[in-house]
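ok so I'm stuck.
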Amino acid sequence: MAEIDFPAEIAGLRSTYASIAEVSDLPQIRADVEELSGQAAAPDLWDNPDEAQKITSKLSRRQHELERLTTMESRIDDLEVMVELAREESEPAILDDAASELSSIRDALSQLETVTLLNGEYDEREAVVTIRSGAGGVDAADFAEMLMRMYLRWAERHGYPTKVMDTSYAEEAGMKSATFEVNAEYAYGTLSVEAGTHRLVRISPFDNQGRRQTSFAAVEVVPVIESDDSLEIPETELKIDVFRSSGPGGQSVNTTDSAVRMTHIPTGIVVSMQNEKSQIQNRAAALRVLQSRLLLLRQQEEDAKKKELAGDVKASWGDQMRSYVLNPYQMVKDLRTGHEEGNPDKVFNGEIDDFIDAGIRWRAGDRHDGEDEN
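replied:
not stuck anymore, here's the structure
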C-alpha cells in the first residue's frame, strides 16, 4: 500500500470542512440554538402546544446540525493527534487505524457536503412516498413491490422509522400501488431525487416462454404537511368513498368499511388509505397526504410560473429516470446523472446512497445553471 501523505490529506479535510461550515453558516446555527433553547425553557412554553411543538422541533433540528458539524471537526482533530502519536512512537498499527479513519472521515464529509445542498423550501421535512405500477402488467406490479422493498430497506439501513399507510395489491403478484412515510429529518429532500419513472428489463418470471419483459413503475415523493402550512381544503372540493380493506389477491382483510378513498375534485388527485384501524384514522391520514400533494403541486406551479417569466424553456426531468437491467446484462443506471452500479441485487437490497448522492448533486447543478441563466 502506498504511503499516505497525512499532513496533505488532513489539510484537504480541513479545507472541505471549512467550506461546509461556511455554507451551513455555523455561527448562525449556534445563535439559533442559543435563542431556541431560551424559548424552550420558558415556563409558559406549553400554553400554546402548536407553537411549543414548532419551537422544540426546530431546536432539535438545529442541535442536530450543530452536533453533526462539531463532531466532524473533532474527528479531524483526533485524526491529526493519532498520526502524530503513531510517528512519535513508531507504531505502524496506529497508522493503519489512522488510514481507516481518514477514509471514514472522507466518506462522512462527502455525505455532509450533500446535506448542505438540501436547502429547498421543504427539504428538511419528513417524506410521503407513493409507488405505482405502470405499463408491463404483472411484471410492473412485481417491480413496484421490489421498489417499495428497496426504499424500506434503505430506510432501515439508516435507522429511519417508516410507516406503511396504504397498499393496493395486484391480483396475480406484486401491487398496484403503495404509500408509506419516512419519518426522518431531510427525508423529503433526500428522497425527492428518486421521484420519476423507473424501468425494469428482465426475463419475466411470469412468462412461461421465458421472454424478456420491460416494465415501469412511478415513484412520487411529497413532503409531510405541517400545521403551519395553511393549506385548507373546502369540504365541497372533496369526494370521499369508503370500502373494505383488501390484502394480496384482492381478499378482504376486515369486515367493516374502514378504508377511505379521497378525491380532490379540482385537481383529480386521489388518495387511498386502509392501513389504520378505523375509518376516522384512515380519513385523517388521507387528508394529510392529500394536503402534502397539493402543497407540492402549488410549489411546482409557482416554480413553473417563475421559469415561464424568466424564459426558461428547458425540459423538466425525463419520464424515465433510471433503468434496472437484469437481462441480457446486469446494470442499474441513472439516466440523469450517469451513475451506474453493476450489481442490481445490492441496489434492490437498499444500497442506493450513491444514486441519491449523485441525484442531489445533479439537481443542485441544474438549479445553479438555471439561476445563472436568470
